[in-house]
Amino acid sequence: MSTNHDNCNSDELEAPKWLDAQFFMKILNSYLKKPELKVLDLKLSPASAKGDHYASIMFRAEIVYTTQTTEKSTVNLIIKTIPEEQGHKKDLLDNSHVFPTEIAMYTEILPKFEKILREAGDKTTLYAPCVYHSLEPRQVIVFEDLVAKGYAVIRNRPATIEELKYALEKLGKWHAVSHKIIKDQPELFEKLQYDVTTLPNILKEDFMTSALSVFINMLENVQSLRPYKKYFELMEGKLVNRWVDVIREYRENRQENGYYVLCHGDFHLRNMMFKGPDCMLLDFQMSYVGSMANDIIYAIYMLFDTDKLGDQCNELIYHYFKTFVDTLKIIDFKGKLPSLIEFRQQIFDKRYNDFLLMTTLMPTIMFMRKGEDAAVLLEGEEQRSKLLYQKYFQAELEYLLPRMLHLGYFDQL
């Protein structure tokens, strides 16, 4: 594999030996229904850049093949698997449910969603074609390469308001179909009993347990932010547990008036690709049934940037919600239509999600957005603490913390 090593994750510089011509001949024989297919040439390279993801390793394959009925043809594939070398990422993924979840999404859930949309006359595509998947002897998923079809990940700039609307439209349709299924056929989601909070030992990781105290220390050291320190001190000892309660609400404490959907679970810019007005969502390893507010709260901190956090934030949320309700009408949803007022209230009620994202995950996502490798943040508290003093993160806080104060987020903690 030849590539620019500086831009790649260290564990994607060398592809596993089992990704060979025989492996690809086997899966292409099955996918293309061409048992006589032969692989003539294979080129492998890293499929992602630093900061794109953490819960897998990914490779791009360019395969030249021939069959009895065709001369040379080329196919481009993406391979997603787990690292073979011992380390934190392998330990996390080996014992998690992220691959079974994503396989279920590609093979059962999203095809069902598209079928419901098609029957209503909506031709929206929700996922890239899955070529192959397996849990044994290795956890692996193979997709068609969307880059070869003209899609691209946005890098080195924030998304425009139009691009964000494209992404939120796709999410709104996804949420609407899942909201209907939860009412009509909830057993479809029985396999999706896991989320980010159920990753092995995630709640005991240093970056989770120490994040709030590090954040509070930063507030003390930055004069303009010091007035907010007292609010976050009130969260000590309960922030993580309250966040877990929010994420697991549907499974453990379902509310009668709750607006529940299948949440994407990791709705940020590197998990979507764009081709003109079309946005393709990616990476369904963290998908779970929960409050529809959760993906939108996540977007505020992980997808939007400061320029989109003023009036445009409200515009984007309205655009998403309108798409959601309009889609419910189109697919013949029989229940009471959700209201924007109640949805806004549920966003507010889930504010411990905001607090956890701001103090713990947002600094990491912003670091990754700069093209950095998240693995270095696992090296120690000092490295993570430095992120909180970066100008780009401080600028976000200078907007977000007053916003929280003015909206009453710090009342009755």
From TrEMBL:
A Pfam family annotated for this UniProt entry: EcKL
InterPro entries: CHK_kinase-like, EcKL, Kinase-like_dom_sf
Domain of life: Eukaryota
Domain CHK kinase-like intervals: 141-330
UniProt-recorded name of the protein: Uncharacterized protein LOC117574557
Provenance organism: Drosophila albomicans (Fruit fly)
